[in-house]
Amino acid sequence: MDYASVTTDFFTQRLDHFNKADPRTFEQRYYISTDYYRAGSPIFIYIGGEGQLYSSSVIAGEIADQAKKHNAAVLGLEHRYYGVSHPFPTLDTPNLQYLSSQQALYDLANFIVNMTATHGWDGAKWIAWGGSYPGALSAWSRLKYPHLIHASVASSAPIFAKEDFFEYDQIVGQGVGDRCAQNIRDSTKLIEKALELDPTQIKNAFTCGIVDDNVGFLYVIADAISFAIQYTSELAGSRYHLREFLCDTMGNSTNNPVQNMIAFVTGLFGRLDTTCADFTSIDVTLKNATVGPELNQRQWYWQSCTEFGFFQTAPATNSLRSSQIDLDYHRNLCGRVFGFPGPLIPDTNATNAEYGGKEIATTRIVFPNGSVDPWHALGITEDVVGHTSEIPLYINGTSHCADLYPASDSDPKSLTDARGLISDLIDQWLQEPYFEQLFA
After folding, report:
1. Active-site residue numbers?
2. Which residues face 393 on adjacent strands?
3. Which listed site, 6, 104, 211, 258, has its alpha carbon 20 to 30 Å from 67?
4. What SS3 state is found at 423?
5. pLDDT, tens digit, for every residue of 181-236?
6. CA–CA separation, 425 and 418 (whole Å)
């Protein structure tokens, strides 16, 4: 496949957009590709999120296909505090006070204004793209800056902040099926008992001796299971058929449930070339205040602990994960890793008041969500009453952000059809003027 060329550059960004007396700035990385661009065409902006942004974000996948179709320039802006876009040399708690979705959205607006002036793009229509948290930022950018963002593609966007996200576990359970779910539950109970008898032995069996906290260890196992569902893929590679790998392994009748879980978790680590330390919700990872391009756990947990919650807890019944993974566990972990004297509780009410939650009121946004993706519980999957140009797009049989990936012959028809609808909506929206009746 031939890819467009891409250039890496840096933009001098304000540290604090809400205190004009603070002159401090930092360098924010961005990518730009203009191979397809023709004067008067639209500008696509891929919004970075809770991790390093790569140049492939602007030259591969659905955004690149649409850029080629519409002769669009494509830019990608890395999120503050992630990748190499760091305002401070460490991630000590006082330095994290400028890490928020509101600051990030203002970064985006400031960047668009400056890029428009720099490249002479006055009058161009900007379309925002993002998946997962950046999908929410894409929707919120249209809400907050409708004079800058003409339309948004908000894939797998958790736009409703919720502290007790027990629905996540429920959807994972639905995704694996009844028999696999019961195998996981049986294993979880036995692992809980093993922790009571000899925590060191069971942790070492999972290659997770680095995890001191027992509940943190149980969370690593739950996170590994969730990863297999959230990121299962039909494409060849490390994530190929992860759901099948999970359930085939857990259904091996020659081993006991704990042996099967050990085989799955260590096998997943091998597939992903990762370790226990790379999974979130363990102290040793979250207390690491070192700055590095690949390090993102501490920053994202800060945003979770202050703005969003998104804490994946055990449901009251039929939980796959241990019942010890509850709100108190997350609240206390938040307080502990960021040095507070007690629990730290995210202000999800303020976040939903700021952005509207599932009642977001704006226009020209499409919300693709996969039925297998647990995050769809916090997204728009049904029509928003009174807002006919906020388009829910529920894609059966697909996982997290599937619509953003490059098309493949193995894609289910539901995904191919969804991409077609997104393409049609972009066609339609680019024909519309910037300013129309606000609520269409």
Report:
1. 132, 373, 400
2. 368
3. 104
4. helix
5. 999 999 999 999 999 999 999 999 999 999 989 999 999 999 999 999 988 877 66
6. 11
